[in-house]
Amino acid sequence: MTALAPAPSRPVVRLRPGLLLAAVAVAFFAAAALWPALVTARDPLAIDLTRVLEPPSWRHPLGTDPSGRDLYARIVHGARDSLLIGVGATALGMSAAVVLGVLSGLSGRFLDGAINRFIEVLFAFPVLLLALLFVAVFGPGPVTLVVAVGVGTAPGYARMIRGQVLAARDSGYVEAATAFGHSYPRVVVQHIFPNAMRPLAVATTLGVGQSIVWASGLAFLGLGAAPPSSEWGALLDAGRAYMTHAWWLEVFPGVAVVGLALSVTALGRALQRRLEGTHHDG
C-alpha cells in the first residue's frame, strides 16, 4: 500500500514585534485623526487656569499647557492636522514629480535636458529656504507648509520616476510590443507607465513620514499654524518658552511626531520588501 505524501505546509507568516508596534501606532493615530472622541473625551481647547503647567499625572497623563489645557487631548486632536499636512505635501510633491518624471523620461533630448536642469534648480533650494519664500509671499499657515514641503520633496521623486520610465522604455517587453506593431501611445499606457509607477506605493508611504517630520520642524520655527492650533509642530513651537521647567510640552509632541514618522516608515519598508519578494517570485 502506497503511503500518501503529506500535503506541503504553507509558510508561516511571522509578524515582527517592531512591525506590529508600528501598525498599532499608525492605527491609533489614524483613529485619532478620524474619530478623536474614541481616544479622548476631553476638549483640547478647554482652559483651566487652576491647573496651569501641571506635570503628567493620573488626571492629565501628559500634563497641561500654560492655559491648563490637557496636552494628551491636544495631541490627539492635532493628529488630523499633522496627517493632513503630511499626506497633502506628499500628494502635491508626488503629483508634480509624476508629471516631470514622465515627461522627462519620454521626451527627446532637448526637453529632457530642460526638465533635468529645472529639477536641479529645485534641488539647490533647501526645504527651509522654500518655506521662508512661501511664507514671505503667502504668510505662515498649514497651506504654506504643504506647498513648501511638497515642492521641496518633488525633485527626489521626479528623479526616481524618470529612472523608472527610462528603464521601462528600454526594456525587452517594450521592444517586443513595438515589434508586434503596437502604437506608441498604447505601449506607453499598457507597458511603460504601469511599470514606472510600481515603486510609487512604497515611495508615497515613506514620503508621508518624511513630510510629517519636515512640516513639524518648520512649524516649530513658527512657519506653520498659529495658536491655538493643536497641530504637533505648533505645539512644539508653543512649548519652546517653557522647555526648561515644563519638559512635557516638548517631549510628548516630539514623541508623537517621531513615533508616527518611524511607524509609517517601518510599514513602508515592509511593503517594499513584500513587493520585491512578490516581484522576484514572479
Automatic annotation (TrEMBL):
Keyword annotations from UniProtKB, A to Z: Cell membrane, Membrane, Transmembrane, Transmembrane helix, Transport
Bilayer disposition of the protein: Multi-pass membrane protein
UniProt domain ABC transmembrane type-1: residue ranges: 79-268
Transmembrane segments: 83-106, 118-137, 200-226, 246-267
PANTHER family tied to this protein: OLIGOPEPTIDE TRANSPORT SYSTEM PERMEASE PROTEIN APPC, PEPTIDE ABC TRANSPORTER PERMEASE PROTEIN
Superkingdom of origin organism: Bacteria
Protein species of origin: Saccharopolyspora gloriosae
Stated family: Belongs to the binding-protein-dependent transport system permease family.
InterPro entries (UniProt xref): BP-dependent_transpt_permease (IPR050366), MetI-like (IPR000515), MetI-like_sf (IPR035906)
GO BP annotations listed: transmembrane transport
Annotated protein name in UniProt: Peptide/nickel transport system permease protein
SUPFAM superfamilies named among the record's database cross-references: MetI-like
Coiled coil: none
Localization: Cell membrane
CDD domains attached to this UniProt entry: TM_PBP2 (cd06261)
Chief site of localization: membrane
Cellular compartments per GO CC: plasma membrane
Pfam families, A to Z: BPD_transp_1 (PF00528)
